[in-house]
Design a protein that fits this description.
The complex is a heterodimer of chains A (115) and B (111). By secondary structure, chain A is mostly beta strands. Chain A has no helices and eleven strands. In chain A, the strands form two sheets. In chain A, strands 2, 4, 5, 6, 9, 10 and 11 form a seven-stranded mixed β-sheet that branches. A four-stranded antiparallel β-sheet of chain A has the order 1-3-8-7, with no helix packed on it. The radius of gyration of chain A is 13 Å and the shape is globular. Chain B is mainly β and 111 residues long. In chain B, strand 7 and strand 8 form a beta hairpin. Classes of the chains: A mainly beta (115), B mainly beta (111). The interface between A and B is medium-sized, with 26 and 23 residues.
Chain lengths: 115, 111
């Protein structure tokens, strides 16, 4: 059973819209991740937050803006997206920094379509 | 050379057979290895993690790690049609958070 939840499940937006994806974890983890996954490709890391601080930004375009309000919540703000940004957006969490046993648990994802 | 390599498949096995999935990695310092199962349209689900050389068994799944040869494998015994999915091998880089995913192997179990 996943204890990482994501909303919405599906999102359709125009290129001029502003929207947000939300993620919440109930596992007491201190690291949270955003991944992007295109069809038939592996997940691609976008951002990592550790103890509510941005730890990794994989050179993601500024039209994607992450936010970590607290250790359980992670948001991804979207603005002026392009059709090629259409993908499955996955949130994950893990115990914390420096852990060898850094098992990541994924939420169900948000299927994003940009028109 | 890709950091994590898997045969994309598809790998087709009959029901009840053993499915063997393989993965190689390039960073010799890697310490943490994971197998995820992903059904079409769903998110990855962690099914096995392994950290030391040898075998680790969990139900019908066995993960095998050989750090000297830089490969990790997943055996699925008594394969079922419900095991049909893409299996992602993931390797965590030493230090930090970044986990590198292989491209995945598609497995089909024929009833």
């Amino acid at each position: 059973d996943t204890e990482v939840t994501q909303t919405p499940k599906h999102l359709v937006m125009g290129m001029t819209n502003k929207k947000s994806l939300k993620c919440e974890q109930h596992m007491g983890h201190r690291a949270m991740y955003w991944y992007k996954q295109k069809a038939k490709k592996p997940p691609e890391l976008m951002f990592v937050y550790s103890y509510e601080k941005l730890s990794i930004n994989e050179s993601v375009p500024s039209r994607f803006s992450p936010e970590c309000p607290n250790s359980s919540l992670l948001n991804l703000h979207l603005h002026a997206l392009q059709p090629e940004d259409s993908a499955l957006y996955l949130c994950a969490s893990s115990q914390g920094q420096g852990e060898v046993r850094n098992e990541q648990f994924f939420g169900p994802g948000t299927r994003l379509t940009v028109l | 050379q890709k950091e994590v390599e898997q045969n994309s498949g598809p790998l087709s096995v009959p029901e009840g057979a053993i499915a063997s999935l393989n993965c190689t990695y390039s960073d010799r310092g890697s310490q943490s290895f994971f197998w995820y199962r992903q059904y079409s349209g769903k998110s990855p689900e962690l099914i096995m993690s392994i950290y030391s050389n040898g075998d680790k068994e969990d139900g019908r799944f066995t993960a095998q790690l050989n750090k000297a040869s830089q490969y990790v494998s997943l055996l699925i015994r008594d394969s079922q049609p419900s095991d049909s999915a893409t299996y992602l091998c993931a390797v965590k880089r030493p230090g930090g958070f970044k986990t590198i995913f292989g491209a995945g192997t598609r497995l089909f179990v024929k009833a």
